[in-house]
Amino acid sequence: MIKNTLRIALSLVFVLSVGCKDKAEEANTSNAEAAVVSESTSEKFTVNVSASTIEWKGYKPTGTHSGTINLDNGVFKTDDGKLQSGTFLIDMKSISVSDLEVGDGKEDLEAHLKGTVDGKENHFFDVTKFPTAAFEITATESLAAGKTRLSGNLAIKGQKHNISFPVNITNDGDQMTIESEPFTIDRTKWNINYGSKSIFEGLGDKFINDDIELKISIKAKKA
Fold first, then answer.
1. Which residues in 98-131 belong to E strands, given as ranges?
2. How many domains are contained in the chain?
3. For the domain that residue 182 is a member of, what is the CATH number?
4. Regarding predicted confidence, which is higher, 20 or 91?
5. Is residue 7 part of a domain?
6. 3-state helix, strand, coil in the chain (%, to 5)
7. Position 127 in a domain
8. In-domain check, residue 1
9. Rounded to 5°, angle at Cα 159 from 54 and 33
């Protein structure tokens, strides 16, 4: 009896430690808001998609998976050198897995995430139906230590919610860089429900955490 109790306790500690290990701060999430519209005199920056990326990480009791997503395009506008408005599209068909090797599950997981497996199209991102996701800026707020709180509507799979998170913005002549620290979003708010124990019962330890960790790095050049 004591051994069984100890085994259960150790298993629970393992699940909690893996699920919460190095967990990033969750982005504030709310209803979608009106996007910012800049003046016609604002300076325009075009995203360099080849130098920009979004890193992602997903958690489950037995470990994590991570990878990247590319941007499709994007435009930002500044007033007096400060970011005021902008949008960017995310190429969901570019989802890649970086922690697995080819032939060791990489292709299978990428296909599952993209929804290109028959019968599993809507498990995650269903990229055939929803090939892009989008982010549009709704507000910026100066924070301590030179950081900026960036708020914007994130649209995935036909669902749009406003999220806000801190970023570092550097504006060096005709080059601008926007970089975030890792932050998390609750995927179920965008109908990405597969393996969620908050949606489905009886999953035991076969669940996938609702939190998806993201880290944004965007480079743009003055048009």
1. none
2. 1
3. 2.40.128.110
4. 91
5. no
6. 15, 50, 35
7. yes
8. no
9. 90
Q: Do the beta carbons of residue 45 and residue 68 sit within 8 Å?
A: no
181 part of a folded domain? yes
Sequence-distant (≥ 6) Cβ neighbours of residue 14 within 8 angstroms: 61
Q: What DSSP element (H or E) covers 12?
A: helix 2-20
What is the domain range of residue 185? 23-222
Q: What's the mean pLDDT in 17-31?
A: 71
- CB within 8 Å of 143: residues ≥ 6 apart: 149, 166
pLDDT at 12: 36
pLDDT at 218 over 70: yes
Please give the pLDDT value at position 22: 57
The Cα angle at residue 223 between residues 96 and 132, in degrees rounded to 5: 30
Cα–Cα distance measured from residue 45 to residue 220, given in angstroms and rounded to the nearest whole number: 6
Taken in order 187, 189, 194, 200, the sign of the CA dihedral is positive
pTM, two decimals, is 0.88
**Residue keyed to tokens 């993201």:** 214
Question: 39 phi and psi, to 5 degrees?
Answer: -70, 160
Q: Per-residue pLDDT tens for 41-83?
A: 789 999 999 999 999 999 999 899 999 999 999 999 999 889 9
pLDDT in tens, 114-125: 999 999 999 999
Answer with the residue of higher pLDDT: 38 or 111: 111
